[in-house]
Amino acid sequence: MTLYGYFRSGTSHRTRIALNLKGLDYDAISINLAKDEQSEPVFKAINPQGLVPALQTDDLLLYQSPAILEWLEEVYPHNPLLPKDAAGRMQVRALSAMIG
Q1: CB–CB of 34/23 below 8 Å?
Q2: In the prediction, which pLDDT does 99 show?
Q3: What distance in Å separates the CA atoms of residue 18 and residue 29, rounded to the nearest whole number?
Q4: SS (H, E, C) the chain
Q5: Are 80 and 73 in contact (CB under 8 A)?
Q6: CA count, 13 A, side-chain hemisphere, 84
Q7: What is the CATH number of the domain that holds 6?
Q8: Mean of pLDDT values over 2-31
Q9: Mind listing the pLDDT tens digit for each residue in 66-97?
Q10: Tell me, what's the pLDDT at 97?
Q11: Cα–Cα distance measured from residue 21 to residue 24, given in angstroms and rounded to the nearest whole number
Q12: What is the tally of structural domains in the chain?
């Protein structure tokens, strides 16, 4: 997997947190938002939305961090990101929203 993100992007940060909590290997490629690299044709060819994060798998491009987090949870159920109880899930979702 390849994660396109930026170190100062909260949404990229929460995606990195999830990948690391799940123990998944990935390559990280920095898209410098301060230099407007997300608008360059090279990145727009990867993600036409021009947003980070974007996660490239062998056969799928994922974008929008909430969708990426849900996909990770469904495809890689080990080391779950969400607790089993509703109150715990709410707390994790609230923290994730604050980071994003």
Answers
A1: no
A2: 77
A3: 17
A4: CEEEECCCCHHHHHHHHHHHHCCCCCEEEECCHHHCHHHCHHHHHHCCCCCCCEEECCCCEEECHHHHHHHHHHHCCCCCCCCCCHHHHHHHHHHHHHHC
A5: yes
A6: 0
A7: 3.40.30.10
A8: 96
A9: 999 999 999 999 999 999 999 999 998 898 88
A10: 84
A11: 8
A12: 1
Residue 25, exposed/middle/buried by CB under 10 A (0-12, 13-18, 19+)? exposed
The length of the chain in residues reads 100
Structural domain boundaries enclosing 74: 2-99
| Tokens found for residue 99 | 């980071």
The whole-angstrom separation of Cα 26 and Cα 88 is: 28
Tokens of 75: 């495809």
| CB neighbour list of residue 38: distance below 8 Å, 6 or more residues apart | 31, 44, 50, 51, 52
Q: 25: which 2 tokens?
A: 């290997």
